Give the backbone structure.
Amino acid sequence: MTTVIGLVAAFLSTISFLPQAIKVVTTKKTDGISLVMYAIFTMGVLLWALYGFMTMQLPVIIANVITLVFAVIILFYTWQNVMKEKRRTK
Amino acid sequence: MTTVIGLVAAFLSTISFLPQAIKVVTTKKTDGISLVMYAIFTMGVLLWALYGFMTMQLPVIIANVITLVFAVIILFYTWQNVMKEKRRTK
């Protein structure tokens, strides 16, 4: 039972970033999104993936590599819009 | 070394939600934020906290209870704005 809860938790917390990645790619809107959050979060997920490699835990590697892909997409679009906004207000 | 990487990963992926929570509370802006993401993510984090209790892993409990607080704040503001938008466009 515990393992099932852990797997479902890992699945939900990983897949949850897919709708956010789709939303920023399709709408290009990132107004409310915190660039600082995704910068820190991406580093955290990168370290989780590294931790998974070092401890040879495949679920940790897979979950965090997938989350990393979504996080980088969201980070890229958010960063792009922040840069545009800065150039506009110079 | 591995433990340190795991702890830093846990710290970063937990604390990363703080700037997003602060941003939605101060700006009330949630345009780019995916309501679906935070609904799924909040369930995932809730299950992670439950997993931590069931396996008596204090770091898992602490990290996910903290993340849960931030996620619920972000989810609440995003949901509130989505409801406002729906009423406005009726």
Notes: Chain B touches chain A through 42 residues (CB under 8 Å). Helices of chain B lie at 2-15, 17-27, 35-54, 58-88.
